[in-house]
């Protein structure tokens, strides 16, 4: 007689952005019956590595986490590793994080023989890190809100206006935008960030305070309006697991200016937008911004809805469910 395996999903990740958005959208679409792993604690806390919720489960149980968190358990645990920026970005890496990934995450993934991720670039990096040919790293992709869609034609008579969406961590490489902006005093930049004080300090440092606007606490509809109003979205990041702002921008019909070495953004762009050869040359970024101004209508090589087809939450959830069925 066979044993019935029970699926437990860590729903604590559910939120509005990044992993939270992924967790919310995927868990809402799963058709597999599942139980909630636990409601206690934060999944990103180091203390979450050892929990009664995991320890009490048996060998016939399966845990699915939409994030990277895991811990000792007799159950098979499938995690979603969105990227390894915690390890690869010197500003974020630490001995504690390296130990967590080596002593907690890696053994769990090797035991399961499977991990999920969101892009081909992330898959290649995770395979290099896991260093085990018996482990399958499956790309399930990412999606985006229905709020991000094309709108009325942009007002071309307005001054060139660019958009940045993200945080100000070092790997996001925002200073190169400030330097480029200083070379083009007629250009304007809106930054959608959580830390408005730090953003304004950065602009002041590069003497472009009069060229920027900082926006906080914007919902999807408001953010979509900002994308549609922009000449282009600027994405100078050196390292990304996926890159939601790039996808959202294309869905709104607005091209993206990005560093060509950021493979996940290059993959989303698929030939559209403006690829900048250097991640640090301010003149190269200023020239790319000029390109976006002068050739705006030619930089979208496909209609915005093509990105909707490529990156839809229904398809993502279906891919996750297909992977989970192999463990059940």
Automatic annotation (TrEMBL):
Query: What organism is listed for this UniProt entry?
Result: Microterricola viridarii
Which protein are we looking at? Glycosyltransferase involved in cell wall bisynthesis
CDD domains this protein is in? Answer: GT4_MtfB-like
Gene3D superfamilies in the record: Glycogen Phosphorylase B
Which superkingdom does the taxonomy of this entry point to? Bacteria
GO MF term (any one): glycosyltransferase activity
Kindly give the SUPFAM superfamilies that the UniProt entry links to this protein. UDP-Glycosyltransferase/glycogen phosphorylase
Q: Where is the Glycosyl transferase family domain?
A: 160-296
Per UniProt, the keywords (alphabetical) are:
Transferase
């Amino acid at each position: 007689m066979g044993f019935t395996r029970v699926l437990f999903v860590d729903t604590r990740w559910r939120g509005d952005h990044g992993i939270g958005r992924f967790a919310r959208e995927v868990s809402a679409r799963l058709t597999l019956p599942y139980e909630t792993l636990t409601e206690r604690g934060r999944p990103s806390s180091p203390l979450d590595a050892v929990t009664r919720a995991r320890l009490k489960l048996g060998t016939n149980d399966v845990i699915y986490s939409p994030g990277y968190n895991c811990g000792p358990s007799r159950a098979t645990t499938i995690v979603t590793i969105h990227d390894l920026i915690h390890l690869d970005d010197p500003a974020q890496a630490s001995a504690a994080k390296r130990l967590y990934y080596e002593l907690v995450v890696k053994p769990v993934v090797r035991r399961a023989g499977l991990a999920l991720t969101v892009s081909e670039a992330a898959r290649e990096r995770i395979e290099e890190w896991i260093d085990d040919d018996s482990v399958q790293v499956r790309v399930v992709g990412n999606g985006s809100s229905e709020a991000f869609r094309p709108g009325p034609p942009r007002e071309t008579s307005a001054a060139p206006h660019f958009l940045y969406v993200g945080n100000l961590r070092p790997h996001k490489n925002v200073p190169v935008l400030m330097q480029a902006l200083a070379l083009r005093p007629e250009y304007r930049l809106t930054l959608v960030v959580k830390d408005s004080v730090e953003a304004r300090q950065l602009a002041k440092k590069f003497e472009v305070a009069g060229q920027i606007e900082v926006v906080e606490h914007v919902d999807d509809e408001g953010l979509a309006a900002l994308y549609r109003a922009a000449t282009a979205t600027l994405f100078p990041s050196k390292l990304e697991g996926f890159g939601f702002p790039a996808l959202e921008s294309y869905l709104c019909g607005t091209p993206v200016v990005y560093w060509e070495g950021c493979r996940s953004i290059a993959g989303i762009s698929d030939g559209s937008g403006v690829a900048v050869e250097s991640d640090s040359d301010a003149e190269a970024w200023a020239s790319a911004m000029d390109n976006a101004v002068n050739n705006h209508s030619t930089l979208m090589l496909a209609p915005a809805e093509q990105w909707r087809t490529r990156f839809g939450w229904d398809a993502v959830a279906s891919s996750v469910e297909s992977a989970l069925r192999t463990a059940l």
